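If it is no trouble, might I ask you for a protein's amino acid sequence along with its backbone structure tokens?
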Amino acid sequence: MASRPPSNHDHRRAGRAFLASAALGALNTANGRKPLARNGGAGVLAFATGYPTSEMPLHALGWQALATVGFARRGAFRSPAGLAGLGLSLVSWMTLVRMWRESLNTGALMESALRDGLGDDLDLAHQPVAPDFEAPTVRRRLVRGPAGLAETRARYVARGETNISYGPAGPRNQLDIWRRPDLPADGRAPVILQVHGGGWVIGNKQQQAMPLLAHLAERGWIGVSINYRLSPRATWPDHIIDVKRALAWVKANIASYGGDPDFVAITGGSAGGHLSSLAALSANEAEFQPGFEEADTSVVAAVPFYGVYDWVNRDGTGRADMEPVLARLVLKSKLSEARDVWEFASTMTWVRPDAPPFMVIHGSNDTLVPVEQARSFVSMLRAESKKPVVYVELPGAQHAYELFDSPRTLFTLDAVDRFLETVRVQEGHMTKAEAEAADQAP
């Protein structure tokens, strides 16, 4: 029996369905362009739906275009609703293309921020290596996005160098070593410790900063990604104690993996941005090192991403809804009852003249941690610290923007590399190979 040809009713129904689909796509694009909400649960939803679109606008365009083709085959454009949906889609696509083009300006923004924070010392590091977006390897990375992360990790984390214990808390006190397979075991490579985020209650060492760890590993660094105890089972200051314990382990053991215990930097995002910045500013603080008070937990530099720098919201730049969550899950005490503990846990409290060099990175579209707090922290740090402070505020970037490869991520990797390399040169640190080459020079 022959199938019935589509009727005007079918076309109108397809048109209405396409208009609804186009409106949803346009709403997602608008949220990726500028978050539709910044507070409460709506702000969390704006983040979850916005950051993939803001970092992969061409992917979003492709998905919307495929949907449009499907509806066109059903005759959606033969109805007024379908034509209205097509108009919405065209506006959405133009916006997505604009978002992509704007992300390509990240390199110039990074260069300006590095130059502002490091001055002429930036020239001591290697020259900028702008991502070649026409190169097959780069294009493949951008197309794959999050799908390539497992392969990236497998390339730099050897089977025998994962889930290494650094403390007594079982799996939550384990770490992974990231390094190139051909890295000399006695090479004294620079080291970076990565602290994952997750609001102090979720997350693990295999979920974040993989592009950064891979990039630095390829450049000859050793990366150390750690787990730490999480709330509500853990109570503050368990989290920072574990970070300090991991630093102590690195100082004592990383030489056997080819790392330099005298050149250890730290990084982390979100809650990891809080913990990494606090660890950098509270070096060797006995209260955060119970039982290992004599261990050296200092770092040579810190690179916090979209971090929480204040738990008491002293200047009104934090989220008003964060206090009850911290009180109930993390500190198990109210701010009014234990303000000294909350203050002691806040990075802003620890700003001091002898702070190590900092590179602070935050997106203007962050709906989980207000960018205003990063600005306030940087202002405080620049007023006190005698070392360089680089601040990068990325227009259009959401929270956790650099979890996978995107134009912003690729430019960020190079900028962080150049910042750390400049610090390394400023401090006079060299790998074994560099020292041997210097000794042999006429």
Notes: The CA atoms of residues 10 and 187 lie 70 Å apart.
